[in-house]
Amino acid sequence: MPRPCKIGVFLPTGELQMNGVTPKWADLMAMAQRAEEIGCDSVWLPDHLIYRFTEIAQGAYDCMSLLAGFAAVTKRVELGTLVLSTSFRNPAYLAKMADTIDEMSGGRLILGIGAGYHEPEYRAFGFPYDHRASRFEEALTIIHTLLRTGAIDFAGRFYSARDCELRIRGPRPNGPPIMIGTTGERMLRLTAQYADMWNRYLVFGDSHATEIPPLRERVDAACAEVGRDPAMLARTVTVLVDFINRPDAPPVWNRPQADPTPITGTPEEMAAQLRAFADEGISHIQIWTNPRTVAGVERLAPVLEALDKG
């Protein structure tokens, strides 16, 4: 029986995020390779520069550098960003980076992008925080046009790319698929216009399929507004799967206001909860495991087996 939806693993890339330990490249490589070995469909990375949700700052590795490394040390899994802030990189150069990593991976990149939200890292690294949606719209125009057509001549309020071409192109003539993570009305409209995939991040809330119907209605409405067939926009979701389920476990999030309701239970029960997302039209699930370690990735193996059995 075919798997009802793709399953990926969302990896930790910041200080103390590997269940109280800071991951090294060797740890991240081991998690990505183990995910591939047990049958996961994809591996995902966040895009942050520094976290300041509490009085203790946490640093993070550069997302695109890690992704290029994963392209070289994996063979089959798709590689996704969840999600890149377009504010952190020139959009034309970001399209160039995406095409290059897509070439390195043999056409396995999923380019997840968004407008960003964590103001302290903008301030720390000198990026403007104002007009984020407007900046994102211009960046998306440049990124989408370059990846799909290979060329653009654009001058906007925030960004420009004059007589710009993507050369050499990656393995896919129209570039990698674009995923946008959002629930805002304006951003949903841009998603419906330009994206191949939509994402909803449920890790810090309720990681269950009952959250999907009202969200689906909003995404469908955005598609209708721009004249797009809703079936042509793939739906993805990020959830927390808790294999520990005990109060003395190290915290799996770095936000004091988080109050997650994770997926728990036996492998068969977890598989049923994941299958419920597929029943609601979700085609790809990214999983934040607790623990966020190689052992946590390995705990997914019987869940995938149960999911594949139906």
Describe this structure in words.
This protein has a single domain, classed as TIM Barrel (Alpha-Beta Barrel). The mean pLDDT is 95. The protein is an alpha/beta fold. It has 10 helices and 13 strands. 38% of the residues lie in helices and 20% in strands. Strand 1, helix 1 and strand 2 form a beta-alpha-beta unit. An 8-stranded parallel barrel has the order 1-2-5-7-10-11-12-13, surrounded by 6 helices. A two-stranded antiparallel sheet has the order 3-4. Helix 8 packs across helix 10. The chain starts with 5 loop residues before the first strand and ends with a helix.
Summarize this entry quickly.
With 310 residues, this protein is of the alpha/beta class.
Strand content: 15-25%
Q: Choose one word for the global shape.
A: globular
Q: State the total count of DSSP E strands.
A: 13
Distance between the termini: 7 Å
**Regions with pLDDT < 50 over 5+ consecutive residues?**
none
What is the fourth-level CATH superfamily? Luciferase-like domain
Structural class: alpha/beta
- Helical residue percent band: 25-40%
The assigned CATH architecture is Alpha-Beta Barrel
CATH class: Alpha Beta
Strand order of the largest sheet: 1-2-5-7-10-11-12-13
Overall pLDDT confidence: 95
CATH topology: TIM Barrel
Estimated radius of gyration: 19 Å
Report on the biggest sheet. Answer: 8 strands, parallel, barrel
What series of H and E elements makes up the topology? EHEEEHEEHEHHEEEHEHEHEHH
> Total helix count?
10
Quickly count the domains. Answer: 1
List the helices and strands and how they pair.
Elements: E1 6-10, H1 25-38, E2 42-45, E3 50-51, E4 58-59, H2 63-73, E5 78-81, E6 84-85, H3 91-105, E7 109-114, H4 119-125, H5 132-149, E8 151-155, E9 160-165, E10 178-181, H6 185-194, E11 197-201, H7 212-226, E12 234-242, H8 267-279, E13 282-290, H9 294-298, H10 300-309
Parallel strand pairs: 1-2, 1-13, 2-5, 5-7, 6-7, 7-10, 10-11, 11-12, 12-13
Antiparallel strand pairs: 3-4, 8-9
Helix pairs in contact: 1-2, 2-3, 3-5, 5-6, 6-7, 8-10
